[in-house]
Each structure stands twice: as C-alpha cells, then as structure tokens.
Amino acid sequence: MKFTWFNLMPWPHLPDDFREKNRSVWVDIPSTLYDPRKGHFVYHEYMDQLEYADALGFDGIGVNEHHQNGYGLMPSPNIIAAGLARRTSRAAICVIGNSIALYNPPIRVAEEFAMLDVISGGRLIAGFPVGTPMDTNFCYGQIPALTRDKYREAHELIMRAWAADEPFAFDGKYNQLRWVNCWPKPIQKPHPPIYIPGGGSIETWDFCLDHDYNYSYLSFFGYKRAKALMDGYWSRVAERGKDLSPYRAAFAQIICVAETDREAEELYAEHCLYFFNRCLHVFPPFALAALPGRPEGLPERHLEAAHRRAFRGGRKPGHRPPTARGSHHGAPRRPPVLPLPQWRHARLEDPLLVPALRRAGDAAPARSLAGVEARRALVDPSHG
Q1: Band of the pLDDT at 225, cuts 50, 70, 90?
Q2: Which fold has domain 4-379?
C-alpha cells in the first residue's frame, strides 16, 4: 500500500452563514467572497504543506482540477504541480487530474504532462477525470450527452501523441490536427501511470479495466459506504477476468490521526464540519446535469440495479447522503468525526503508529515548517 497526501486546496475563509446565504459553493458562488491577498497566502501555505508531505516520506502528493468554486482552488493543477516538481525530490507528483474533455485541443494535456514528468525526473502520475457536471457542463459549457464521447477522443489523441515516434495527422470527430508531434515526451515509458478518479460510475470502471488504468475512488462519506462501492468495483474486475493487482485501485479518504477519539474530535471537528457544511454545499441541479456513469445503450433499470449491488443499501443513483449524521437541511448537529461506531472501526489499531507518525513529523527537515511560518508572517502581520 502506498500513501498520497492529497490537497483539494479549498478556500478557508467562507463565512459561518455561507449555507444560509448562498445556494452553492460551486458555479455561482459570489466572487466577492474571494480575497486575492489572502489567496496569496493560501496558495503558498498549501504548497508548503505538500512539500512538507514529501519531506515526511509520503509516496505521493496530490492535486486536482476544479473551476469556479470554493471547494478547490486549482483551475490549473499543472501550475501547482510544476512548482512542486522543482521543490520536491521523492514523492510522486499526482495530478488527479486534467479534465481532458475540456481541452481544445487535448494535445495540450500531452505536452504539459510530459513537461511535468521531465521536470520531476519521471515522478508524474497522470489523472484523466471525466469531470464533475459543475465543471464540465455549467462552468465550461460542455453538452452533457457529448462529454464521454469527447473524453474518449481526447484520451486517444493524448496516448497516441505520447507513443508516436513520427508526426501524424489526427482526424477525429471533435479534433482535427494536421500535425501531432509531442515535444517533449515523458520520461516514463510507454507513458506515466494513468489514474482515473471517479465517484462510482460503472462506465468509468469499465474504461479503467479496458486500458488497465487505476480506478481512484473519491470517498467523503465513510469507509463503510466506500467499501461497499469498492466491493462492487472488485466484483466487476472479476467479471471481466482481470487480475487482482492492488494497483488497479486507489482510495481517497479523510484520515484524522490522534491518540484517542476524544483528541481526534478536539483537533479535527471544526475543520471537518467546515468542509462538509460549506465546501460540499452544492446546489443539487448543478450536480445532476446528466445521469453520471450511465453507459450508452444501458437501460436505466439495469444501471440502477448495478448501483444497488455496489452500494448494498439500495440507494438510487444520484442519492446524496447528508453531510453528517443527524443533519437536516441546515448544519449537522454532530460532526462526522465523533466516535460513532463507523469511526471506531476505522481506527488505526497499531499502538506504535501514531507516535511513529509524530516522530516523523518532528524529524522532518525544518525548511518546510519554516517556510509555512515565514509565509504566514509575511502576508498576515498579526500572526505571532
């Protein structure tokens, strides 16, 4: 198992009454809530944290792409990744990823990912998400019914550009290029590892299996729900006659490290509540522009049955779990990190693990921590 420290880069200054006064953190969030001067500090603090994760020995450091939102401040994760590639030396640079259906032409992704792989010395993990409806359909104006088709063509162009030794012409449905000649080429051959992030789309499962890519499940609602979905994925792997390599799957999960449940609640409750109540406050019609994951030609009743098998709980596609147990429309009454049974079962039981993690933090190079404090003092004179 390998560990990646992933940073969504959410905007940390949304007001306490954000849910009550704004219908969504995505698409039509008021731009007046963003302060560029604070944003300068926020970007540098997040990048300092990612560099610190490399110093601690994490196997990877992760960034991703989202648009017009307070949930994740990286419309161009490649810019962040380029800075990290220069200032880190060990961790994989996991760009999870570029929404390739949005690029015109997608050869741009092939070029920039190749640059990142070369700058980092062959440490890039290349992510190709289909993209959320908020990003692809509402912010970038893509037609929902065409997104998957454009995605597949973009993927074909990128992979051919990396593989070809001679210039070639590409005559696609959405992209026509007389000359495709990718300079530079990635260090990793035949190409960097490909990760496909998703939230449970069966079509995405099959795309990963067709190409032997990693399926990366993005989980925000607990390990039990995630395990049910991943059990569905592994069943699909078996149905397709594929091997059970652990590198076929990755799993994103919020992990709170502490000695006890009480300490975890004290340390993390405020931050988890902020994320669930504000950063995930999305206007439902923005998230449901199209039925995600519906393969062409597959009757809806079959898709629903497949989702039911995957979740084992009978939830219908598009079901949106509450932000935390006990929530009802407004703010939840209890934070998701409280010592509920699910939380207890998810604890890391090794009594030596938490002290070891803390010792690793104490022993990490002082440069990264000093950078965080220096940046804070520079931009926020009240600090310290």
Answers
A1: confident
A2: TIM Barrel (3.20.20)
